[in-house]
Specification:
Number of strands: 0
CATH architecture: Up-down Bundle
Helix content: 55-70%
Number of domains: 1
Number of helices: 7
CATH superfamily: dinb family like domain
Shape: globular
Low-confidence stretches: none
Order of helices and strands: HHHHHHH
Structural class: mainly alpha
Mean pLDDT: 94
Distance between the termini: 58 Å
Length: 176
């Protein structure tokens, strides 16, 4: 196997593992806390369900594309220029979800994407226009954007949440 496929698998796995370890570094009783921010994602659940939903969209694009259809991307009723409203809708859809459910859903969807990647040769992954549904792009760009690169984004968001939770702990400790 060429190192491009292996690197994608390795980096995606490493980044996902690091993301989970970062979340697990917070005491269980504090993992569901939300932080005060003007940004959309205020807690770990928000970030994990964002990843999960993008995994699900990728799975749909892949399934429809490989069946010979032209998938509506990024989602039915949305264009690429509509990413912010789409992400806001994703956020709204999961506000009642518990963190432990979000963790499980995201772990399972991550594994499904990794299994899809493993079924392909490096040539199939890196060759532009290899599959009609990827248009001028290649599978690698879709896979990397929804795994390794997205996990790096998520880690940055989670690091801010961890820092805020730790700051809350310092304040509450001082007030005791």
């Amino acid at each position: 196997m060429d190192d491009t496929k292996e690197r994608l698998i390795q980096e995606s796995g490493q980044h996902f593992h690091s993301l989970m370890k970062l979340i697990e570094s917070v005491p269980v009783r504090k993992r569901s806390l939300s932080i005060e921010t003007a940004e959309r994602d205020k807690n770990f659940r928000d970030i994990l369900m964002h990843l999960y939903e993008w995994h699900a969209m990728l799975e749909r694009w892949y399934r429809e594309g490989m069946a010979g259809d032209t998938p509506s991307m990024p989602a039915p009723g949305y264009k690429w220029r509509d990413i912010q409203p789409l992400n806001q809708q994703i956020w709204e859809n999961y506000q009642d979800m518990k963190l432990n459910q979000a963790i499980m859903k995201c772990k399972l969807s991550h594994e499904r994407i990794m299994n899809i990647i493993r079924t392909h040769t490096t040539e199939e992954i890196i060759t532009k226009k290899h599959y009609k549904w990827t248009k001028t792009s290649n599978l690698y760009s879709y896979f990397a954007a929804n795994t390794s690169k997205h996990y790096l984004w998520a880690m940055g968001k989670c690091e801010k949440i961890v820092a805020e939770i730790n700051a809350m702990n310092l304040v509450s400790d001082r007030n005791k």
